[in-house]
Amino acid sequence: MSSSLETAENRGDLRRVVIDPVSRVEGHGKVTLLLDESGHIREARLHIVEFRGFEVFIQGRPYWEVPVMVQRLCGICPVSHHLAASKALDHVVGAAAITPTAEKLRRLMHYGQILQSHALHFFHLSSPDLLFGFESEVGRRNVVGVAEAYPEVARQGVLLRRFGQEVIRATAGKRIHGTGSVPGGMNRHLAAEDRDALRGEIGQVIEWSRTAVELVKRLHRSNPGLYDQFGAFHANMMSLVRDDGAMDLYDGTLRFRDGDGDILLDGVPDAMYRSVIREQVKPWSYMKFPYLQQLGPDDGWYRVGPLARVQNCDFIPSPLAEAERREFIDHGKGGPVHATLAYHWARMIEMLHAAEVIRDLLDDGELLAGPLLAGGERRREGIGIIEAPRGTLIHHYEVGDDDLVTMCNLIVSTTHNNQAMNTAVREVARRYLDGRELTEGLLNHIEVAIRAYDPCLSCATHALGKMPLALELIESDGSVADRLVRD
């Protein structure tokens, strides 16, 4: 689907061009460009135009409802919220360490989510631009067009996503908005018939994942000038890593690197996230702008997600994905890869890693039996951090003695990436649109940059607090009787 284009006069001699809505992303957003009389870009911004107040209306609910409720933030990544909330509330019920069976079941669910979400994003949402070209015929630039021109690519994408959804169903009870994870552990084992069915398919899933990585590498080799330069800019990186520096998408401590690849902070536990991350509010977006406190808001913003994770870890603990990671790192020729389109390459490496992890977990007999729940001394606060498909996801809750939630703070992946996405929009606009007659194909370059981050705009607009708001009282003749503005 093509975005609509609106042009209007704004700010005196500046012309305003609006891409509304940004298409092929989860949620609703728009981009505003301000151009001077010569067509030069003066400003480019990504606006999040929907609002969902989860941080407030979760208050007053019993804590055990939360892992199910927060999934309604999103239909694409509900498992990530389900597990992040469960991890936070593990601390509330005193389960500082859940049982081995429960952790393995959660990991299986989580890596199924990573696999299905990465397949959905790459094959359904982004591949039309990459396979046909950013300025190709708009009616062809969709998954139906991919199915007609590249039927085997489309077929593999559909089946990869289906497999990931089956992993979720087997562990959570449903493909979307399941109930398998609870504070303190899990409420179900993996059924033997589900394990056997998944085992029968995992070999093919791994081969298709390897094929997907090869497809992205082939695209990079076919046009290195585009793939290495499109939306390229230095940025800090943040992700979870395991104690030994390995990639771990379920658990770990926070690590930050700067744009040159040097470690800024390492080993930050989940309970300490507030001591290193701050959030800035700007009047033109409902979405906040997080930054690393020690660098300040101007220099402390960072990227999260596949591009950060693949380069922030020391190694990937599965052999096929690790070999691909090394080739990706070599592509940077001694420095981090900062090109926006490299997100897709890193994303497919992670999809391969997820398939390898699922294969190994399916051989573990503890998935079928063993204790599911743990507990201990009741606490009033819990923080859970997980690596969602789109990047680092933080859930933070406080619970009263009556078991009702009194505070909720969520920092989702897309919020972490907010400044990076806005920077990508500006870089692409200035390089490809500046001084040119704007066409749908040229404007799609901006959407391509946004889509590379796989944003979930629904997840990112959850907080009720400072936000721009304009209220107008209109008379029957259309005149404005009164106007109240808060920004």
Largest sheet: 4 strands, antiparallel
**Gyration radius, in Å:** 22 Å
Quickly count the helices. 17
CATH topology: Cytochrome-c3 Hydrogenase, chain B
What number of domains?
A: 1
Number of extended strands: 17
Can you tell me the overall shape? globular
Spans where pLDDT lies below 50 across 5 or more residues: 1-10, 462-471
Characterise the protein shown here.
This protein has 17 helices and 17 strands. The chain has 487 residues and is an alpha+beta fold. It has one domain: Cytochrome-c3 Hydrogenase, chain B. It has a four-stranded antiparallel sheet, with helices on one face. It has a four-stranded mixed sheet with strand order 9-8-7-12. The chain has a three-stranded antiparallel sheet with strand order 13-14-15. α4 (100-132) runs antiparallel to α13 (342-361) and α7 packs antiparallel against α13 (342-361). Residues 1-10 and 462-471 have low confidence and may be disordered.
